[in-house]
Amino acid sequence: MNKFYGKVLEINLSTGKKKLYQIKDEWLKNYIGGKGLGAKILYEELSPDTEPLSPENILIFVPGPLTGTLAPTSGRWAIVTKSPHTGIYMDSQVGGHFGAALRKAGIDILIIRGRAPKPSYLYIESGNVEVKDATFLWGKGIIETENVLKTKHPGAKVGSIGPAGENLVTYAIIGFDYYRQSGRCGAGAVMGSKNLKAIVVKSGGKLEYFDEKGMKATVSRLLSVIKDHPVIKKRTEIGTPMWVLMSNEGGFLPTRNFSRGVFEHAETISGEYMKKKIWVRNKACFGCTIACGKLTHVKEGKYACNEVEGPEYETLALMGSNCEIDKIEAVAYLNRLVDDLGLDSISTGNIIGFAMECYERGLLKDTDGIELRFGNVDAAAELIKKIAKREGIGSLFSEGVRKAALKIGQGSERFAIHVKGLELPGVEPRGSWGMALAFATADRGGCHQRAWTPTAELHGLIPRFSTEGIAKFVKETQDERSACFSLVLCDFVPFGVGDFTELLYNAIGLGFDKESYLRTGERIWNLTRMFNVREGISRKDDTLPPRIMEEEAPVGPAKGLKITQEILDKMLDEYYALRGWDENGIPTEEKLKELGIV
Amino acid sequence: MNKFYGKVLEINLSTGKKKLYQIKDEWLKNYIGGKGLGAKILYEELSPDTEPLSPENILIFVPGPLTGTLAPTSGRWAIVTKSPHTGIYMDSQVGGHFGAALRKAGIDILIIRGRAPKPSYLYIESGNVEVKDATFLWGKGIIETENVLKTKHPGAKVGSIGPAGENLVTYAIIGFDYYRQSGRCGAGAVMGSKNLKAIVVKSGGKLEYFDEKGMKATVSRLLSVIKDHPVIKKRTEIGTPMWVLMSNEGGFLPTRNFSRGVFEHAETISGEYMKKKIWVRNKACFGCTIACGKLTHVKEGKYACNEVEGPEYETLALMGSNCEIDKIEAVAYLNRLVDDLGLDSISTGNIIGFAMECYERGLLKDTDGIELRFGNVDAAAELIKKIAKREGIGSLFSEGVRKAALKIGQGSERFAIHVKGLELPGVEPRGSWGMALAFATADRGGCHQRAWTPTAELHGLIPRFSTEGIAKFVKETQDERSACFSLVLCDFVPFGVGDFTELLYNAIGLGFDKESYLRTGERIWNLTRMFNVREGISRKDDTLPPRIMEEEAPVGPAKGLKITQEILDKMLDEYYALRGWDENGIPTEEKLKELGIV
Questions:
Q1: Which helix (DSSP H) or strand (DSSP E) does residue B574 occupy?
Q2: Tens digit of pLDDT for each residue in A142-197?
Q3: B374-383: long-range contacts at Cβ-Cβ below 8 A with a sequence spacing of 24 or more?
Q4: Chain-wide mean pLDDT for chain A?
């Protein structure tokens, strides 16, 4: 029984029944917490016939053993559920303050089951949870919802869904701390399907440490590593938008629905430009000295709106260049709109780009009068509002590009840019072959967080436009990130495995050496794969959009290149071999036994 | 018998005897060419009692099978000999046009033995070599020597030594194409000891290819990889001096004789500043589209001098910040001086910094009236001239910091900054723990070219100020570079192993897969280690300067850190284990057998 982490609170919204217990030690040892533990719970609880939007699906809020501690970037935590957008495993790594508050309210893992008979919210305090009526909040945006609930419960932290989540748009988000999201794969729709509008946490407690003195020494050492780190400095100065000009120069900034990787107006949606034009101040998550968040404010002009945290790089890429929108103010405006209505800005930007291409090609006739041309900000805003409401043309796009292309037909699937149903984020893969494999193999579909290769490619540490070394890099990063996302710490800490294990040991007394820690990451990755295999996923799904495989990049460094089936197969063959999976992408009995999964 | 590479010309300068033969196929297969083949020849020919400056030492000019071909950056080639500066193995990778000319004159490998009875130069044309009188050139600088010889032999390529080489300064260079050097470890002194002032090559031939069509296709593909590569673009724009601001920000720009890694005046010796102030045009080696060379010209003021190619980053770091010289014009002036007199700018800058520290600490009294204070450009220039002549105080410093410290005594070895006698180049290792291990284990002593870790450290791909992942990174890079330096291609091509093997196969029909190619690199690294082991090198020599191990960095990101014996031992233990060497750093019988060395 670990004294420092592992307290589970379950609530069944259908019945109101609660359960409080401690997670098994063996599960902690094998899956740590966060993503890993969430995946284990999900794998054990669900079966392949569980409908993601049915009461049988479970929504797991799962901070890790480092969440809320003194460890740098300990604001991070995870949400795990079965995705209504892709139909497979999903986890989402969230920043802000909510996860830390949950732990300090005495709950390490919150499992939500069933479906409330009416719009409800949860109120959590001192290890207990109450179901409260939320009828008066239904239909409200995330900002207003949070404002109302914070007035009602001063000092509380709030997570909530907007109209998109209520209306079961399959890529709806849950918004926390106003502008931090569980963004991808539609956890907001799962919450909506449970009639759950919000969760309010009032934290009062203090976390205990296995070795507080040791923790303080480790943290002090690591803070100085962060302090002068060149990459971190740039993250503090510009944040993730530092990538706009780099990816444009690298030729992989998605532009015009991923038809190219170079945007001629990248400058005016760049991080540097944003800093000059609309930046107000930096914002940090709980326990973070990096403060990569950028609070911005468009004060005047057509796109004047309230403050927003962002846009992040991904939003700039997808709602900017990918829609040929070249005004930073317009992107900030759209960013605020989706954050408030409760939509994922990555999927939404990708979907709008797809809608615009369909429209310009004449495949989309009835658009409720919206002129869906590339670069048309007003049209994008109109479409977003309709999607959130699932109204008219919005309904067509409320389940992502994969399903929209099926409905539109006429060959539109040729430019539907997704993997396993999840719209690709801000890297055009013909310009980054590493991300091509990362997207093809990510456990939740087209995701950039499981392995990030562009830094290594741009700085010559792995060759560009080559399959060489990619499989190994992607495999090793996926394993390492799986472990890190189980702690949970942020994507952006520049720590090594030894640092992570030292923090973990000091925090809860769970000891790993480097090998067993990375083995744990590998175990988690294999478990999520097995979840997906149970849903029918195999090699055939580890693929890329037709545009990437069949059309040559027309401009930029990747000009003339495409990721052919042969190239992809070469990377997949190497990747499966390194993983100990069979040629169909299925983990072998031997590998599963070695990892202790079966 | 390989038709496309492997023609050896030997000349014994003592007897005038020549020998022309083809290298064994087995040696090509196991050591490729360039560095690897040179190392094999050196290992077989020399014994541990060979004095580097005796006629028994051999000087090997060894282009690789890709030198002079269509392959991008094929201007590179190697010089291999036993170093008079360190007493151990050395190779030097040279750019420019000379190596390509040598191959096109019908010679792939030139081995120089013995000692000419009087100052001589070699004239090479159509696979033949003549020894010519060079009495009239003795005492002349490299620039004038090359001018005279090019007037005498129009269209020829020239390599020559300056007064430093003639006077057996142990870190004397050989200069090629005016401003491309065999820089480190004193090949110029070996040439001087052979009474050989210069080598002139008149090339007329054309290289044949095993598969010319295949070669053209590969090259065309690789040129487009180079064309838009972000790192390459910066190399073309700023060249190696792009590192000044990055290493200063990273806290590892050697400053004031490596007492710190931050220079407050880095800006005015930076690449960006250089480009604005004194840049004239870019210069490229044979077969290179990168053109990282920067021709500069200080036209007026105190440091006005003729044009020079450079300063490179290393020169800026060692003759700039390390001597607290903060004027780009002054560094260019000193650069031209050492290039012409024939001294290695890295060792020289390091030595001047050491001399300045000794002087300011009062350990050096009789300096022929030179006020050797940090930042004193005139003093640096005076010392350089005296070193090249081995005159007065210059004599004391003409064999490097290791020997100078022995003579000066008074504890001065505490700030003699070298590994195995080779002065450290432009990375202050407390700020880059990866380079700490790279320096400690490099085959020719404190060298930066065998494994370059700062890119990975600065961009978060390996943790900073941590031993984690360092041994593996350094070991793998050393092996990979050993193979690349045997082709020979440049440090700066962003190619993968598959690209290298494809080029090699097309050029001379020698086929490797990825594994056997990297195994060849490992074989070469182990062979050079065995050369050094035979000279008495072991774990005790795989170390770092006392300053780095005993003094905490006083400022910058590494503030408060030092590379303690414990830290170094941890990295060495891991490194030896990965290499299959025993704990004393000696390759095991088993490893040597596996590699086919014994």
A1: helix B565-579
A2: 999 999 999 999 999 999 999 999 999 999 999 999 999 999 999 999 999 999 99
A3: B374/B256, B374/B323, B374/B324, B375/B323, B375/B324, B375/B325, B375/B326, B377/B303, B377/B325, B377/B327, B377/B330, B377/B333, B377/B334, B380/B319, B380/B323, B380/B325, B380/B334, B380/B352, B381/B333, B381/B334, B381/B337, B383/B352, B383/B355
A4: 97
Residues B48-73, mean pLDDT to the nearest whole number: 97
Asked if residue A586 belongs to a domain, the reply is: yes
Q: Do B230 and A249 touch (CB under 8 A)?
A: yes
Share of chain B above pLDDT 90, in %: 98
Alpha-carbon span B286 to B99, nearest angstrom: 9
**Together in a domain, A402 and A435:** no
Which long-range contacts (C-beta less than 8 Å, at least 24 apart) are formed by B145-153?
B145/B197, B145/B198, B146/B175, B146/B177, B146/B178, B146/B198, B149/B121, B149/B198, B149/B200, B153/B123, B153/B200, B153/B202
The one-letter amino acid at A444: R
Given an 8 Å threshold on Cβ–Cβ distance, is B497 in contact with A224? no
Domain tally for chain A? 3
**B52 contacts B101 by C-beta, under 8 angstroms:** no
CB A123 within 8 A of CB A205: no
What mean pLDDT comes out for the span B59-63?
Answer: 98
Q: Which parts of chain A have pLDDT scores under 70? A: none
**Which among B230, B461, B559 is the nearest to A461, CB-wise?**
B461
Residue B501, in any domain of the structure: no
End position of a domain, from candidates B202, B219, B252: B202
Residue that has been written with the tokens 């030292």 in this structure? A502
Domain assignment present for residue A421? The answer is no
> Which residues in A lie closer than 8 A to residue B556 (C-beta atoms)?
228
Report pLDDT for A205: 86
Give the residue numbers spanning the domain of B125: 7-202
Q: How confident is the model at residue B255 (pLDDT cuts 50, 70, 90)?
A: very high
Residues B191 and B281 in one domain: no
Co-location of B195 and B261 in the same domain: no
Residue A212 lies in a domain: no
Within this chain, do residues A448 and A366 fall inside the same structural domain, yes or no? no
Residues A577 and A460 in one domain: yes
Q: B371-382, pLDDT tens digit by residue? A: 999 999 999 999
pLDDT in tens, B299-354: 999 999 889 999 999 999 999 999 999 999 999 999 999 999 999 999 999 999 99
* Min distance A187 CA to chain B CA atoms (Å): 31
Task: Locate A414 and state its tokens.
Answer: 């040729």
Q: What is the CATH number of the domain that holds B523?
A: 1.10.599.10
- Residue where a domain stops, chosen among B416, B449, B483: B416
Convert the pLDDT of each residue in A207-229 to its tens digit.
999 999 999 999 999 999 999 89
| CATH code of the domain containing A99 | 3.60.9.10
User: Based on the domain organization, do A392 and A539 belong to the same domain?
Assistant: no
Looking at residue A322, its pLDDT comes to 98
B305 or B486, higher pLDDT: B486
> What does the DSSP 8-state code read for residue A367?
S
* pLDDT at residue B598 in the model: 81
Q: What Rg, from alpha-carbon coordinates, does chain A have?
A: 22
As a whole number, the mean pLDDT across chain B is 97
Residues A320 and A286 in one domain: yes
Residues of chain B with a CB closer than 8 angstroms to some CB in chain A: 224-225, 227-231, 233, 246, 249-251, 455-456, 458-466, 468-469, 494-499, 514, 556-557, 559-560
With CB atoms and an 8 Å threshold, state whether B461 touches A458: no
Closest residue on chain B to A248 (Cα): B230
- Same domain (yes/no): B191, B252: no
pLDDT of residue B205 exceeding 90, the answer is no
Residue-level pLDDT at A595: 98
Q: Give the Cα separation of A143 and A161 in Å (integer).
A: 10
